[in-house]
Amino acid sequence: MALLLSNLSYLGIAKETTQGTYVAPTDFLPVDKSTLKVDDNPARLRDETLRGNAALLQGIYDGVKFATVAFSGPFFPDVCGHLLKIIGPDTIAGSNPYTHTFKLTSAQPSSYSLADFDVVEARGFVGQVLDTLTLKFDINGFVTYDASFTGWASAAQSTPSNVQTAVSPLLGWNTSVTVAGGANARVISAEFTFKRNVTPVFTMANTQNPKTVWAGPLMLDGGKIRAIVEDNTELNYFLNNTQNALVFNANQSASAALALTATKGAWTNALIDRSGDFIAIDLTVDAIYNATDTGPGAVVLTNAKSSAY
User: Fold this and answer.
1) pLDDT (tens digit, 9 = 90+) per residue, 91-101?
2) Kind and range of the H or E run holding 113
3) In a domain, 1, yes or no
4) Which residues of the chain have pLDDT under 50?
5) For residue 176, what are the contacts with CB-CB under 8 A and spacing of at least 6?
């Protein structure tokens, strides 16, 4: 039997109408091959009862089950919009280019079907809810993301037809930064993590699968910003507990842009770094709820997609 070429793998995604009901992929996400981790988590119930023999383990039985899926990659401004649904619903406006605004609401975030074609077959992971999305801006590379989902355990599905995006990923050097309404040209890199506690909820309904996968409140804490030091502006933000509006806008073209806004960012740590030939500062920022973002932060995605995610 021949070996399997890992590069023939691919990952599809589709928003579900009903959580836990499989939907064939509507888009395909280019992911970094070393980062794709699919993990079925069936509970195994161990029988270690006394049976009159000298063995400890007398049997193993199936318990409840769920799965997690995690992956990373460059941010493609058409297909990666699905990942921004961790924040809230997509409000679409404009006419080619279209703007997709993602803000927090009280509704539960969308669930997704993920189709992992592992070269042998397609495994469908249904009811998948985003628990973590990290957006990374780096002058030396792409704008990238790390995403992780929690949901139902996998099942075999029909192999989907793989249609990859023709759109280019966003580049880090196309990013501009605004702090407190003014341009800041000192930032080297930054990353922001949207996070929810996502819990599979199991009830007695004669099934191993969860009744629902439930998402908790949205957090945007522990943002990391690295900047060169030309004066003590950034250090004083931290020392004085100045809470600034932050905007990171990766604007590649009129129809390919990603703008992350945290209108009330609190600086929670600042470390001066003298290890290199020039002084840098590593800053940590926690985003606070505000009425402008209707949450800790919001994202506006611009692309040619005419329908909402």
Assistant:
1) 999 999 999 99
2) strand 112-117
3) no
4) none
5) 183, 248, 249, 251
User: Is residue 87 within 8 Å of residue 218, measured between CB atoms?
Assistant: yes
Q: How far apart are the first and last CA of the chain?
A: 41
Dihedral in degrees, nearest 10, Cα atoms 15, 303, 287, 187: 140
Instruction: Determine phi and psi for 31, rounding to 5 degrees.
Output: -125, 150
Q: Is residue 54 part of a domain?
A: no
The total number of structural domains that make up the chain: 1
Domain span including residue 40? 7-44+62-303
Assess if residue 56 is contained within a domain: no
Structure tokens at 175: 């990013």
pLDDT given at position 115:
98
C-alpha distances (whole Å) from 99 to each of 95, 109, 188 are 8, 19, 27
Token code pair at residue 273: 């770094």
Question: pTM of the prediction?
Answer: 0.96
Q: Strands 243-253 and 256-273: what pairing?
A: antiparallel
The per-residue b/e assignment along 85-100, b for 16 or more CB within 10 angstroms, e otherwise, is bbbbbbeeeeeebbeb
Find, among 222, 236, 219, 214, the residue nearest to 281 by Cα.
236
User: Can you give 43-100 as a three-state secondary structure string?
Assistant: EEEEECCCCCCCCCCCEEEEEEEEEEEEEEEECCCCHHHHHHHHCCCEEEEECCCEEE
Residue for token digits 């939907």? 23
Answer yes or no: is 57 within a domain.
no
pLDDT of residue 252: 94
Per-residue pLDDT tens digits for 234-265: 999 999 999 999 999 999 999 999 999 999 99
Mean pLDDT of the chain, nearest integer? 97
Q: Which helix (H) or strand (E) holds 239?
A: helix 233-239
